[in-house]
Amino acid sequence: MLPALDDEIVRHRIAKRIALDLEDQAVVNLGIGIPTLVSDYLPSDRHIVLQTENGVIGAGPIPEKPDLRFIGAGGRPLSLVPGSSIVASDFSFGLIRGGHLDATVLGTLEVDEEGSLANWWIPGKLVPGMGGAMDLVTGAKNVYVATTHLDKKGRPKLVKKCTLPLTGVGVVTTIVTEFCVVRRQEGKMTLCEIAPEVSVEELLANTGMTLAVSRELRTMLGI
Amino acid sequence: MKKTIPRPVISAEEAVSFIREGMSVMIGGFNYGGIPYTLVDALAKSGTQNLYLIANDTAYANDEHPEGVGHGKLIVNGQVRKVTASHVGLNRETGRLFNEGRLDLELVPQGTFVERIRCGGFGLGGFLSPTGVGTVYEEGKQTLEISGKKYILEMPLRADVALIRAYKADTWGNLVYIGTNRNFNPLMATAADLVIAEVDEIVEPGELDPDCIVTPGILVDVLVLKGDGYYASRT
Question: Which of A2, A37, A189, B208 is the most buried (most CB within 10 A)?
Answer without folding.
Answer: A189
